Amino acid sequence: MTIYLKLMAWTLLCVMPQQEPLGEYWGTAEAEAKYYKLVDIPLPKELAIEAGSFEVMPDQRQLAVATRRGDIFLVDGAFDKYPEPTFKKFASGLDEVFGMAYRDGSFYLTQQTEVTRVTDTNGDGRADQFETLSDVWGFRHYHEFSFGSKPDADGNIWVALCLSESYNSKVPFRGWCLKIMPDGRTIPICSGIRSPCGIGPNEHGVMFYAESQGPWNGSCSLKVLEPGGFMGHPISYNWYDLAPEMGPTPVEPNTPSRLEIERQRVKQLVPYAVVFPYIRMGRSISGFMVDQTGGKFGPFENQIFIGDFSLGVVMRATTEKVNGVWQGACYPFREGFDTGLLAVQFTPDGSLIAGGTNRGWPVRGPKAYAVQRLDWTGLVPFEIKEIKARTTGFELTFTKPVDRQLAASPDVYQLKTFTHIYHQGYGSPEVDQTVPRAVAATVSDDGLKVELQVDGLVRGHVHDFYLPDMRSAEGEKLLHTSAYYTLNEIP
C-alpha cells in the first residue's frame, strides 16, 4: 500500500464513528448548567442555517449570521431572554462564509475564494454590491476552506487557508496565512498551516489560529501567526517563490521526530502555544473569541473561549509569552451543545453565541445544525481560573479562595507530562510521559493563588494537572478537575 493510501485509510479510521468513538463526555453538563445556561435560538423550519460566522451589528440589537451555504441573515431577537427571533436574508450566492465583520457600512466576508466587501447601497435591507477585496489564493477543491478574522487594529483581515484535501497544496498559498489590507493589498504572513478552523487575536491582541489534529500535528492546538513563521506542515513550501519577502524556504523537518528537537533545526518553526489533548479536550477545535464583556460573562474576563466541531463543547484557554515564545493552558468549560460548533460570538449583554453544523460528518449532538446561547447565571463556579509558568513550577489562580490547609499540601496536585510525535503521519499518541512531583505549595493571603514548586518540569511537554481533592474555603469541589499547560519555555 502506498504512503498516500495508508494516510487515507488512517484518516477514514479517524472520522468514522463506528471505528473510533467520538469520546467520553466530561460528565459535568448538569453541574455546568447551574452557572452557564444553554438557551436555544429557534431557527426557521424552512431554512437550513448552518452557521459559519457571526457578527453583532452596530445597533447592538441585531445578530448577523453567515452560513456555509453562502447566505447572510440579519436576526432580530436573538439576544432576548426568551428568544423568538426573526430572520431576514441580506445576501446569498456566496460560498462557505467562515469569516465576517461589519465596518463602515459594509460587510467584510471571507469565503472559499476571496475576501468580499458586501454593501446595501440603496438601503432596502438587501445586499446589492459585491466587491472583491482580495483573491490572490487558489481554489480547486471543496475541502480548501478559508477562515478570516475580524479586522485587526489597522483594519487588516487575516486569512488562514486550509490545504488541498488536507494533504497537499495544489494551488497558490494553500496552507498559508495571508494579511488582507484595507486597500486589498495582500501580504503573506506564514506557511505550514494544515487545517485551520478559527482565526483571531488572543487576549493580548496577537493573531492566533486554531489548528486541527492531523499530519505533522499530534493534537489540536492554538498557534501564533508569527510573521515569517512556519506552522509545521511542509507541504506548502512550494509557494515561497511567490513570497520573496518571506525569505528562503525553511529546511525540511525530520520525520519522525519531536517538535522541541525540530525547532532547534528549523529556525522558522513555531511551536504550538496551547495543545488541546486529543478527545479529552476537543477533537477539531474551531472558532474562538476573547471575553471582553467587562465581567458580564463571569470570572473569566480576558480569556479565550473556543469551540470544537466534533465534540460540541466550548473550552477556555489562556496564553503568555515566555522567553519570546507563546505558550499557555486550556481548561474544560461547557459541554452539551446540539451540534458541531464552528463559530462563537459574545453579545452586547455578555452572553456567548455558539453555532454550527454537522456538515454530514460525525459530531456529538443530536441536530444537523443549531445556534445556541450561553448565559451566565450570576453564580461563580469553583474552577482553576488560570495557570502560569514560573521558574521553579507554576502559579495557579482559582475563581474562589481555596481551603488553605488542603491547598498547601503538595499531594493535592497530581501531575503528568507528555508530548507528541512530530511526523508526517496522521496525529500521534501521547509519548515520552513523565511524572513530575509537586514539592511545595504556597497559598496567597487572599487564598486565590498557589505558587507550586515542581520537581521535574519538562520543556516542550504538556503538563497535565489533575486536582480531584482540591476544595474551596467553603468546601466546594472543583467543577472541572483537570487543566493542561504547554510548557515551551521555562521562565
How would you portray this structure in words?
This protein is mainly beta. It folds into two domains: 27-376, 6 Propeller (Neuraminidase); 384-487, Immunoglobulin-like, CATH 2.60.40. 6% of the residues lie in helices and 38% in strands. It contains four helices and 32 strands. It has helices at 3-15, 29-32, 259-265, 404-407; strands spanning 36-40, 51-56, 62-67, 72-76, 86-91, 100-103, 106-110, 115-119, 129-134, 146-148, 157-161, 177-180, 186-190, 196-201, 207-211, 220-224, 274-276, 285-290, 304-308, 314-322, 325-334, 341-346, 352-357, 369-376, 384-390, 393-398, 414-420, 430-434, 437-443, 449-455, 461-466, 482-487. Strands 18-19-20-21-32-31-27-28 form an eight-stranded antiparallel sheet, with no helix packed on it. A four-stranded antiparallel sheet has the order 1-24-23-22, with no helix packed on it. A four-stranded antiparallel sheet has the order 2-3-4-5, with no helix packed on it. A hairpin with a 2-residue loop joins β25 (384-390) and β26 (393-398). It is globular and about 65 Å long.
